[in-house]
Structures are given as structure tokens and as C-alpha cells.
Amino acid sequence: MKAVEFEGDSYKKLENFPQPVREKFVQDLEMMKYGMQPLSTSKPMNGLGKGVFELKKNGKPAYRLVYVIRGDIIHVVHAFSKTSNGTDKKEEDTIKQRVSRI
């Protein structure tokens, strides 16, 4: 079983997501803890660090939970909402900074 650790303010941001989105991401993390694939779409975030993935909940706004797995720990490095295509540079910078400290 893997542990889940939240980096920076990612836990607080996740708490502020709408309840259905928050519950979905928490369910995904629980599944991943036990070696299962998440139900949400998970895709690599190329260019933001080795092994960086995002869980996606599309809509208006869209929600993202970014994580890396190192050994037996799932590090949640960022959680944010977005309203445009692509990821804002500010969000990318936060992700890169937190991944570099793991």
C-alpha cells in the first residue's frame, strides 16, 4: 500500500473543490494507494518533471490534481481549477518547483 502526501497548499486547494469533484479525486487516490488505476482520466504532464501526472475532471471550470509517485508515496504536488485550454504558466511553475523538492 502506498502513502499519500500533500505538498504545499495542495490539500487546502483540494478541500475547496466542489464536493463531487473532491470525492472523485479522493476516490482515485484511494484506488492508487492499493495499486489500482484511477477512474478519472490520468495523463502525463510532459515537460514538468519526470513522472508528473494529472487527474482530470473536465467542465467549466475544469479541475486538475497533479501527482508524482516516488517509491511507496503518492505526492500530490498541486490541485487547481482552470477555465482555458492549456495549463497556465503560474500553475506549471508551481508544479515544477514542488516536484524539484521531492
What would you note in describing this structure?
- The protein has 102 residues and is an alpha+beta fold.
- The chain is built from three helices and five strands; from the N terminus they run E-H-H-E-E-E-E-H.
- The chain has helices spanning 10-15, 19-33, 89-100; strands spanning 3-6, 41-44, 53-57, 62-70, 73-82.
- Strands 1-5-4-3-2 form a five-stranded mixed sheet.
- A hairpin with a 2-residue loop joins strand 4 and strand 5 (73-82).
- It is globular and about 35 Å long.
Q: H/E element string?
A: EHHEEEEH
CA-based shape? globular
Class per helix and strand makeup: alpha+beta
Number of strands: 5
Rg, alpha carbons: 12 Å
Strand content: 25-35%
Q: Mean of the pLDDT scores? A: 91
List keywords for this structure.
102 residues; alpha+beta
Put the structure in a nutshell.
With 102 residues, this protein is of the alpha+beta class. Helix content is 32%, strand content 31%.
